[in-house]
Automatic annotation (TrEMBL):
Gene3D superfamilies: P-loop containing nucleotide triphosphate hydrolases (3.40.50.300)
Domain of life: Bacteria
Entry protein name: KaiC-like domain-containing protein
InterPro entries in alphabetical order: P-loop_NTPase
Length: 250
């Protein structure tokens, strides 16, 4: 098993050796508990070590918020990694996908066959070293609001988490809705982690399970500012209000 050392001190405390790869990781917890901001720590270490990244941040309409957040939180300027990142933007109203240029694809990610296809297209776009590609996705629970595609999405993500070792996956999900369905994904992932929030906007992170690497079950406070946590919470709520009614009709 290969292991990537983490840069952040709070992550090193609970993952002293680092993240095993290629593996699948699920970060689970209530909505508004900063899960994508924790994901960014793994993505930052991956990019700085030369790996390629495919970003599927369902609650971000553009790449800009991703760039701003990662620079603020982890001091990484994504402009310096342009050939190493591809972004998949979610559009439930198109049939398949469109290439928007600049390593950005817009795709109907409700359809598992389109999800799988655009991941491979995006993978061919990014430069990477022996680390390979990390696929990170956030707010994947949004896809479960589609009555037509819900069961197919559950099965496809479960299969990826359990069986796909061609890439390293790190996904985050909110458990506010579909908690039972998300437990299927929690069981399927190699590595399982949780976040929670305490007033006034303090973020806590805990590892429940890791594959073939030592870890601590200590709960750690993630040193992210109240402003950053508030900003991402507001953006996520705005996206949910806009996109969930659309997905529920599909």
């Amino acid at each position: 098993m290969n292991i990537l050392k983490m840069e952040e001190e709070w992550l090193q405390r609970v993952l002293p050796k680092g993240l095993p790869y290629p593996t699948s990781t699920l970060i689970s917890g209530p909505g508004g508990t900063g899960k994508p901001l924790v994901e960014f720590a793994f993505v930052s270490s991956w990019l700085k070590s030369g790996g390629g990244v495919i970003a599927i941040p369902l609650q971000y309409p553009t790449m800009e918020f991703l760039k701003t957040s990662m620079n603020k939180l982890y001091n990484i300027d994504l402009k310096n990694y342009q050939g190493k990142i591809a972004m998949l933007q979610f559009d439930p109203h198109i049939d398949e996908y469109e290439n928007m240029g600049d390593n950005v694809l817009t795709a109907n990610l409700l359809k598992p066959e389109i999800w799988n296809k655009v991941i491979e297209i995006a993978d061919s776009m990014v430069d990477k070293n022996s680390l390979g590609t990390m696929v990170f996705g956030s707010a994947l629970n949004l896809l479960l609001f589609s009555p037509t595609y819900k069961d197919k999405v559950i099965a496809n993500i479960e299969n990826i988490l359990k069986n796909d070792k061609s890439k390293t996956y790190i996904f985050s999900v909110s458990t506010n809705a579909f908690a039972d369905e998300i437990k299927i994904w929690e069981r399927a992932a190699d590595n399982l982690m949780f976040t929670r929030m305490e007033k006034p906007m303090k973020l806590f992170f805990k590892i429940s399970r890791m594959k073939e690497v030592e870890f601590s079950k200590e709960e750690v406070n993630v040193p992210i500012s109240k402003e950053a946590l508030t900003e991402i919470k507001e953006l996520a709520e705005e996206t949910r209000k806009r996109i969930i009614p659309e997905i529920m009709k599909i």
